Amino acid sequence: MKYILTLSFSLAALFCSAQSGVKFDKASHNFGKIAKGVHKSVVFNYTNSDAKPAVIEFANAECGCTQPEYDQKPILKGQKGSIKITYTAPAVGAFRKKVNVKFAGQKLPLELTIEGEVIQK
């Protein structure tokens, strides 16, 4: 049992260290209440702490009402980059949308989340 726990923690540490050196200032944003049909945007900033330049390969939103915008220029070590996510409030009610951001050389995408409540105008 002790061996399994040690192995699990070792693999978790290895997995975390294998991740990209990109760190977002925040991974989620709550818009609060927004009127139906209104476009709301938020900018997520990130810093590259890796020796290799950080380049966004793609950013996929889980629906057409959420649109990510980003520059594919390389962000060097210590520099900041950003991705803008715009939500078009198509229907009344609470929402929670995810955007997966994949950086070059990174095995798994990072996940950003926006949420809020759409109200009638």
What report would you give on this structure?
The chain has one domain: Sandwich (Immunoglobulin-like). The protein has 1 helix and 8 strands, in the order αββββββββ. Helices cover 14% and strands 51% of the residues. It starts with a helix and ends with a strand. By secondary structure, the protein is mainly beta. A 4-stranded antiparallel sheet has the order 1-3-6-5, with no helix packed on it. The protein has a 4-stranded mixed sheet with strand order 2-8-7-4, with no helix packed on it.
Question: Quick recap of the structure?
Answer:
The chain is mainly beta.
Write the layout of secondary structure elements.
Layout: H1 2-18, E1 22-24, E2 28-35, E3 39-48, E4 56-61, E5 66-70, E6 80-88, E7 93-103, E8 110-119
CATH class placement = Mainly Beta
Oligomerization state of this entry? single chain
> Tally the helices: what do you get?
1
Q: Please identify which CATH superfamily we are dealing with.
A: Immunoglobulins
- What structural class do the secondary elements suggest? mainly beta
Radius of gyration: 17 Å
Unreliable spans: 1-18
Mean of pLDDT: 88
Number of domains: 1
Q: How far is it from the N-terminal to the C-terminal residue, by CA?
A: 59 Å
